[in-house]
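thread: overnight batch results

M.L. [08:02]
morning all. the overnight job finished for the chain we discussed friday. pasting input first so we're all looking at the same thing
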Amino acid sequence: MSGVANRSLTQSFVHVIAHPDDNLYFMNPDLDHALASGAACVTVCLTDGESDGRNVLHSELGRVTRADRPAYTRARINGLAAALALLATGDENSPWDVSLVSHLEGRMVEQHTLRAAPQVQLILLALVEARSVSLPRKDSLRGLWLGDTPSLSILPPVHSGLPPSAGYTREQLIATLHGLLDHYRPTVVRTLDPNPDHSPKPAPGSGSTVYLDHQDHTYSAYFAQAALARHWAGGKARSASVEHYLGYVNALLPHNLDQAAVGRKVVALNSYGWADNRHCGDPAGCGDRKVGAGALRNGWAQSTRYRAPGSDTWLQPSGEGRLTAFGLLNGGAVAWTETDDGWQGPERIPDGGDLEGQLQAVRQLDGRLRLLAVRTHLGYAATTHRREIVTTLRNRDGSYGPWQSLGAPDGTDPVRSMEFGYPVGLTLPDGTVQIAVRTWGGSVAIRTLEGPWAALALPPQAGGSVQDGLGAVVDADGNTHVFAPGRTVVHWASATPGGPLRPAPPTGLPTPAGPVSALLADDGGLRLEFREPKSARVLTAERRPGRTVWKVTAESAPPGGFGRVSVGAGALAVRDDRGRIALRAAGHDWQHDGPLLAHSPALAMDSDGRAVAAALGSDGRLYTTRQPVPGAPFGTWSQTG
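M.L. [08:03]
and the structure it wrote out:
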């Protein structure tokens, strides 16, 4: 077994992908930031992505050419190696050392190590791909997971050295990934989307559900989740965050990256696509001509999105003038508590395992904090693989009650449970806690802790469905307002405290690029913060008290990055164009600093009226900063365990 030369001992990144171009399209610019950090940065590619074996330009797909899947696979791997080298060193021709290593007895993988930056590695398992985006095929990752085939073959690329007879059973593939995770001990694991959206149009003829992503993406994420569960249970893991990335559906959503970010993605994809016709010395080919110079053709490169849209409420006052921060590490809920001597933690919350995506904290009327999360139950059949919303209550003494299941908004159907969104919570003036979540059908459902889920009518201006990334707020009269990104910002509201929610008058606001954050303004009106498509600029929209008209009242200088705009304590916090944090106190410019970020930052006010920002770093540690006095710019970031 070969090691990796870590340049950063505090963090490392493992990207589990299905095909050689997946992290370039769907995980970048995060991939770029990981490579720039100097930490171990490993790409684990499960399949060859051999497709039809024809390495031709997109414009030549109709031309008859000889299929050569081993050569096409090698060309794709050469293209990925060139792109990674370009991002890591600035030289796409920077050489790699290739060897066969084992992370499971009897099974070998192809390991590529970048000579000029040996902390960068590429691992190829060389399993055959499904060779279809959605049609079921026994010999595929899907077939292996579901038990349609007892083993999945490998197809070694040309001049590989991998034995062609060495396929993988389901257990062997999970065990191999487990071995890789134990070896690299990542602090960030990135996978493709385990919960893809379905198309509103069923498959012609069969009427079966069609998903808006490649089946290999989905099942590669399942295998990664299974391996992660073993890694975390085995005692070798460091504190790790997990991010899941949307795939093909990005083409149907507003582009959320600015021109500079898209341009850098395109440079890497052009290298992968062999757009420069460079000579790499391999007759199999130096890249994937199906991509060529057409990185923008399919609409994937213009966006990067997480399946979990991000929570901005995980930092909360918890009594006695202290703050408590919550997060997910190693699939479990954890908490950090502020003390006279700084922050203590992370403390693992009992029975808070098998959680994924994000945590939201809701402050109840009695001052106690309620956590909302999503739990995934992995299963090897559609009837046993399911998700549910769960909640626990943090008591005043710091203890936690039992986790309670709130079920799923679409009932007991396990298949539909795979697509619901991530919950947001509210506390009403009478102490009732409401929970809202995006549904399988693309609308929103709401419930109380005691009551059933109630689906909300989808207004026409939504554009057929809304995306995840809800915002919710209780207004000065105690009425509930829920917002969702769609063709515009979609708004539901109650007419009385605790009353049913119905579509509010159309907001008329521009299309959001992603999640919508909501808060009660100082004058009693409603305020929204969201990103503008294609610019990453933050837009502020307001509705004055007693009015029904919404107006965009502010447009920030673009901070770069993507994702949720966290709002609170008179400040804004976002992921910026370096994968770190941009903070903006009222009346000040953006401050770009902080750690390389996992998930979304959060804001809260301390007992002295100062804004405090918190971020979970890619090293699994909590980072905080605060204003020296209310209204001032933020101070320096500090780190805790």
